[in-house]
Specification:
Helices cover 73% and strands 0% of the residues. It is mainly alpha-helical and 255 residues long. The longest helix is centred in the C-terminal third of the chain and has 40 residues, at 178-217. The protein is elongated.
């Protein structure tokens, strides 16, 4: 009897693509089973069945990055880092690629328990043929639903719940539809990102005001205050160990 092949959950990149995509879209093989092609698509090794499975796989891979943004902590990280760069006054440093990469790996760090649970309860049993695809999709979605429920604002959740009730839908927080939870969670993350961004920008604004007042008093009307304040803002951020404080605060801000 062959021992089932097991993949370690530490392979986070593959886990994210499989687990997050499983929230909303079905795999290519499930799609092939649902489409009635008069038996052609069900034939073992048939060209049509293979094409449909490849189409489903490509669809999953194409929407996975968007789903990663929707149901994880990525939004809060990228907003905070982008506002930080704007607050300091830097146009393209750090580069977008650096900010996105840092946000991505911080997302992996924060979401690691969620990814591991989705892998162990949904993906791994599906690979071992211990559960069906429909059951696996539900088990993959549950950890992400729990994470979003723990971090969504009650006011945002109530907004979309009320909108759903106006359409005659029954809404339960314990078994909430992802179509209600995901937009509520995204609005909450954007709001929290702006709140953190305000706290980040405030000290830099004070430095800008002080420098602008001094340059005006010295009669240097033609010298842009932002040019003078930039090195002071960079020095201030380095002296307080800003990256350490910011990343630590962002990670601790999640339930």
């Amino acid at each position: 009897m062959k021992t089932p092949v097991r993949v370690k959950p530490s392979a986070l990149a593959g886990t994210v693509l499989v687990a997050v995509a499983g929230l909303f879209v079905m795999t290519g093989s499930a799609l092939a089973q649902q489409i009635d092609l008069g038996g052609i698509g069900q034939m073992s090794g048939s060209t049509v069945g293979t094409i449909i499975q490849m189409f489903g796989l490509i669809t999953v891979l194409s929407v996975a990055p968007g789903l990663l943004i929707m149901v994880t902590s990525f939004t809060r990280f990228i907003i905070a880092f982008s506002i930080l760069r704007a607050g300091i006054g830097l146009q393209s440093t750090p580069a977008n690629l650096i900010l996105i990469s840092l946000s991505l790996f911080m997302t992996f760090y924060v979401m690691a328990p969620t990814f591991d649970r989705a892998w162990n309860e949904g993906v791994q049993p599906l690979m071992d043929n211990r559960i069906e695809q429909a059951e696996a999709m539900g088990k993959i979605a549950d950890p992400f639903r729990t994470f979003m429920l723990e971090n969504v604002r009650d006011k945002d959740f109530d907004l979309f719940a009320d909108l759903a009730r106006e359409r005659g839908q029954t809404v339960s927080r314990e078994e909430v539809d992802l179509r209600i939870l995901v937009p509520a969670f995204m609005i909450s993350e954007i709001r929290r990102g702006f709140e953190i961004g305000f706290l980040i920008v405030l000290p830099f604004l004070v430095i800008d005001l002080i420098v602008a007042t001094i340059t005006m008093a010295m009669g240097m009307m033609m010298l842009p205050p932002t040019v003078v304040s930039l090195p002071f803002k960079l020095l201030f951020f380095v002296l307080i160990d800003g990256w350490n404080l910011l990343v630590g605060s962002l990670v601790r801000s999640f339930s």
